[in-house]
Amino acid sequence: MWGNWCNMDVKRSILQEIEIQEFKKRGISLFVKRDDLIDPDISGNKWRKLKYNIALCESKKKTGILTFGGAYSNHLVATAAACQQAGLKAIGLVRGEELNVESNSTLKRCAELGMELVFISREEYAIRNDKAYHETLGADYPEYQLVPEGGANYYGMVGCQEILSEIDVPFDHVFVAQGTTTTSCGISFGLKEHQKVHVVPVLKGFDSLGEMNSILSKTGIDKETIEELMSRVEVHDEFHFGGYAKHTPELIAFIRKFYDQHGLKLDPIYTGKAMFALLKALELPKYDNTTVLFIHTGGLQGIEGVEKQLGEKLFE
After folding, report:
1. Is there a single domain that holds both residue 118 and residue 169?
2. What percentage of the chain's residues is helix, strand, coil (to nearest 5)?
3. 3-class secondary structure for 136-166?
4. How far apart are CA 181 and CA 166, in angstroms?
5. 174: closest CA among 195, 200, 157, 197?
6. Residue 218 confidence class, pLDDT cut points 50, 70, 90
7. Which of 119, 124, 277, 287 could be a cystine partner for 236, CB 3.0 to 4.6 Å?
8. Helices (H) and strands (E) in the chain, counts
């Protein structure tokens, strides 16, 4: 069954041109890689990150996948949907022992898709990446393949590496929101010598290059190759808008205006911040006569939490 899921038609991820006259006059072409259209539940880089993790689960003849996420986690929904489609079971360890299946539509959707939800304390969730904790989980759930929060591992990175191979127009710059660096590391592998990847970390004070270097070094790639890859990375770290999952009225207004003008929905956690950074960067003359690519990494499923804070819908 996994073979059919793996071969999901990525042609749904179209390349959409965004027309902005002030940029067109300067010879700038802007395209969006619509990974958000791949699947309603497994959208964006979530599909990319899960693709080979599910293949690994199948090859090891495991019963299913065990992973982690918060109350509004896109990753949990994506994992639940991917496992259902692949004929696997799924367990989600959810941050917040006070929560339950009925707490919000995200958790309800996970349950509808067959995921078993286990609500754990924030203290336990804080050690989710510890080796000793993984060993305990391995003993408690021996038939399950453990996948890190957000699909942030080697197999997730390999899946993200395939994004650029689907682009049929020559480009000079690619912009992408950055959380765990899994997607940006994968993209860096697909770059040609003259191309650059621009990462927009959504965490305040995040060491983008250090984290990318750390992940790449664990793959066995030699130091010189990693240095070459890092030389093609440019970090835009001033667009976190307060930190992870935080936003400002300026960001919300930008997202709404962009939707009104271009019909493209962005989320306030990842893609909204990255697009804001991109448009700000394109004001500089160094981008004249270039083609710029934006990777839409999905994330729209989880905006319910933001709308709850706003007290209104983000998009009408």
Report:
1. no
2. 45, 15, 40
3. HHHHHCCCEEECCHHHCCHHHHHHHHCCHHH
4. 20
5. 197
6. confident
7. 277
8. 14, 10
Q: Which domain holds residue 267?
A: 2-40+159-310
Classify residue 315: in a domain, yes or no: no
Extended beta strands in the chain, E state:
15-17, 29-33, 64-69, 89-95, 116-120, 144-146, 173-178, 196-201, 233-235, 291-295
Same domain, 171 and 140: no
Closest CA to 248 of 204, 278, 198, 281: 204
| Whether 81 contacts 39, CB under 8 Å | yes
Q: How many domains does the chain have?
A: 2
Name the residue among 42, 103, 38 with its Cα closest to residue 70.
103
Place of tokens 């066995």: 220
pTM of the model: 0.93
Q: Which of 119, 151, 183 is the endpoint of a domain?
A: 151
- Residue 99: CATH number of its domain: 3.40.50.1100
Q: What is the pLDDT of residues 231-269, one digit of tens each?
A: 999 999 999 999 998 999 999 999 999 999 999 999 999
Token couple for 276:
């804001």
